[in-house]
Structures are given as structure tokens and as C-alpha cells.
């Protein structure tokens, strides 16, 4: 049995019990995939990260949900940056994480309310489009509840970005697990990617926000993700490409109806209609630190 330092961090929030939690396990090179997945399941979190040494970046970060390893995840990246900073491992204004989606650059911006961790995600990759009626059926919605054509988009981790016409539709969404499994199988997303529809509306949960979103998930993951930073980046690319948003900087919101409000600062570079890079940033709160015995 080995022992590992671990931090539980709430990301995309400046306070405890907001945003989305992630357990960050340090010096975790000795842990195999099965153990990592079992740990995620034990925590009842959506994702956990496992940090080890890197030859090409400051650290290497592996991302796991309860069922598999994924190439990248947004809120765990913010959480990992905050954990490394709190432990004094990385204290400078810039961090570099080796991931299966490439080297992710994080800028640490100090402010009176605490640091913001802003990651530059992988360049947008646009994939297959989906029938709006088929996506709506997964959630018991009408085809008219969907705006435009849903599309698989990745900025490190892929999702089917689906814009809904109203927050009423967003709140009415109830997952049909069998239909979601069929969608994921039919889409044929790259290995490790999620493919689940990310449901988003073009009005924030608060006056500050420009978007409000939900991600409903299949077992053994929890039923809903409180905040999805990777899908926030993919959504920004989709909205900019399809000219559904006019400003290259905005606030994305998620989790408010779950009692875990989260906010991200989003920045898009590239001409309107042709996104080039997406930056997603947020604050984080280190909730617990301790020792993990495995």
C-alpha cells in the first residue's frame, strides 16, 4: 500500500461548495487505471486528476471519470492548478500541463478576490452534426426547443454542442439513458471523448452571465455535472463559428439549479465565424487536503 498527497478543490468558484469539485492526487505515477477509476467512483465526483512528473511540461496530468480515462477536462485543470499553487509546487504566473490533448498553458492572474486560472484549450475541432429532433428526443424535448444544428466540437474533449431556445427547455430536459448511449455509439467520437450533448442557452443564470448550461451524464458517473470547463470551451468555439454570439469575451454559467453555481471567463480569438483559440478561466477553492492510502 502506498500513500499519496491529495487535495479536494472546488473549481470555477471562489467559495466552498460552489462550482465543481475535483480530487487532485499528487505524485501518482504508480497508480494504474483501475485504481484511478475506483477512486473517482469512491469520491462520487465526476472527475479526478492524477499528477506525475513530465519531461515536456511542468507536470503531467491524467484525467479520469468513473468509467475511463479522458484526454482533458476543464474544471479539473483549474482545480489542479490551484492545488499545485496551494502546495507551493508551482508558484509562478504560468503553468504548463502535459495532457493527452497536448500541452495546456495556464495563466495565473492575481486579483483582490484571489487568483484566476485561465487555460488556453486545444484548437477547436469540428466534427459530425446531429439531427436536432434526435438530440431533443434524448431529453424529452421538442425539435423546436433546439436552435440550429447540434455538432460535435472538441477543444481537448469533445461534446455534441446543443443550443436550446430557452431556459425552460433546459430545465425540462430529462435524460433517456438508452437514447444517449445510442447517440454516443452512432456518433463514433474519438477514443476517450465524451460525445454527450452539452445543453446550453444564450442567457445566463444571473445578470452577469451570457450562457447557462447543463451536462447530464450516464452511470457510473453522477447524473449531472455541476460545471464543465472543457464543454464551455467547445461551446464558445461553436457559438463563434455559427455567429450565435457577438462578443469574443463573456461569462459562462452552470450549476446554479444544482445549488453549485459556477462561472467561467471565456475569451475567443480569431475572426467571427472562424475561432482559432479558446481561453477559459475561473477561480478555485481548496476545500480539503490530506493523505490518500491506496
Q: Which CATH first-tier class of the largest domain would you pick?
A: Alpha Beta
Our count of helices gives 6
Mean pLDDT: 96
| Rg over alpha carbons | 18 Å
How far apart lie the N and C ends?
A: 5 Å
CATH domain topology of the largest domain:
Diaminopimelate Epimerase, Chain A, domain 1
Q: What is the number of domains?
A: 2
Second CATH tier, the architecture of the largest domain = Roll
What is the H-and-E element order?
Answer: EEHEEEHEEEEHEEHHEEEHEEEE
Please outline the major beta sheet.
18 strands, mixed
User: Could you name the ranges where pLDDT drops below 50 across 5 or more consecutive residues?
Assistant: none
What does this 3D model show about the protein?
The chain has 294 residues and is an alpha+beta fold. It has 2 domains: 3-107 and 284-293, Diaminopimelate Epimerase, Chain A, domain 1 (Roll); 125-282, Diaminopimelate Epimerase, Chain A, domain 1, CATH 3.10.310. 21% of the residues lie in helices and 38% in strands. It contains 6 helices and 18 strands. It has helices at residues 33-43, 74-86, 132-138, 167-172, 177-187, 229-241, and strands spanning 3-11, 20-25, 48-52, 59-64, 69-70, 94-99, 102-109, 116-120, 125-129, 146-154, 158-164, 197-201, 211-216, 224-225, 249-254, 262-269, 277-282, 284-293. It has an 18-stranded mixed sheet that branches. A hairpin with a 3-residue loop joins strand 10 and strand 11. Helix 3 runs antiparallel to helix 5 (177-187). The chain is globular and about 55 Å long. The protein starts with a strand and ends with a strand. The mean pLDDT is 96.
Amino acid at each position: 500500500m502506498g500513500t499519496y498527497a491529495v487535495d479536494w478543490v472546488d473549481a470555477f468558484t471562489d467559495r466552498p461548495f460552489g462550482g465543481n469539485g475535483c480530487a487532485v492526487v499528487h505524485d501518482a505515477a504508480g497508480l494504474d487505471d483501475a485504481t484511478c477509476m475506483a477512486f473517482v467512483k469512491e469520491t462520487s465526483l465526476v472527475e479526478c486528476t492524477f499528477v506525475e512528473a513530465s519531461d515536456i511540461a511542468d507536470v503531467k496530468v491524467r484525467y479520469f471519470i468513473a468509467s475511463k480515462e479522458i484526454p482533458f477536462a476543464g474544471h479539473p485543470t483549474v482545480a489542479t492548478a490551484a492545488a499545485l499553487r496551494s502546495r507551493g509546487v508551482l508558484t509562478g504566473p504560468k503553468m504548463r500541463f502535459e495532457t493527452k490533448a497536448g500541452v495546456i498553458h495556464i495563466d495565473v492572474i492575481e486579483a483582490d478576490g484571489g487568483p484566476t486560472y485561465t487555460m488556453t484549450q486545444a484548437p477547436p475541432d469540428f466534427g459530425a452534426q446531429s439531427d436536432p429532433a434526435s438530440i431533443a428526443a434524448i431529453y424529452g424535448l421538442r425539435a423546436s426547443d433546439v436552435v440550429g444544428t447540434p455538432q460535435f466540437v472538441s477543444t481537448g474533449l469533445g461534446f455534441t454542442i446543443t443550443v436550446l431556445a430557452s431556459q425552460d427547455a433546459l430545465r425540462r430536459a430529462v435524460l433517456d439513458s438508452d437514447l444517449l448511449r445510442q447517440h454516443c455509439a452512432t456518433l463514433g467520437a474519438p477514443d476517450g471523448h465524451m460525445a454527450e450533448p452539452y445543453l446550453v442557452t444564450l442567457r445566463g443564470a444571473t445578470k452577469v452571465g451570457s450562457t447557462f448550461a447543463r451536462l447530464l451524464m450516464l452511470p457510473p458517473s453522477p447524473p449531472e455535472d455541476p460545471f464543465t470547463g472543457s464543454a464551455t470551451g467547445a461551446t464558445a468555439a461553436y457559438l463563434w463559428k455559427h455567429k450565435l454570439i457577438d462578443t469574443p469575451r463573456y461569462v459562462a454559467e452552470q450549476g446554479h439549479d444544482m445549488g453549485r453555481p459556477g462561472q467561467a471567463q471565456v475569451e475567443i480569438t480569431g475572426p467571427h465565424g472562424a475561432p482559432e483559440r479558446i481561453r477559459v478561466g475561473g477561480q478555485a477553492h481548496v476545500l480539503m487536503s490530506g493523505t490518500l492510502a491506496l
